[in-house]
Amino acid sequence: MWTRQHKKRWTGALIVPAITAVFLSYFGFHAFQGEYGIYAKYRLEARTEALLAELENVRQERRTLEHRVQLLADGTLEKDMLEEQARRSLNLAHKDELIIFRSPVPAN
Question: Is 71 a member of any domain?
Fold first, then answer.
């Protein structure tokens, strides 16, 4: 009768922990860096704050424009406002007026 003696290998005991470590590393990395990860949430919140600030600026500009349009509306026509808009559109001025050219203010 033949007896085989096998030497016990310790590498077989490392296969499952190694696969588990790779698995946890992969999903751990994507939990932080992935498209829907923690850092993506912070970037989204920062972008939301920036866009809300921009929205408030646009709303303020719209209120200003609506007020100017209201001054030109029928029934409450401001003659000075009408004259200012007409002169600006036509590039006209009286002979005795002094014209000061200003550079436009850059929008932020």
Answer: yes
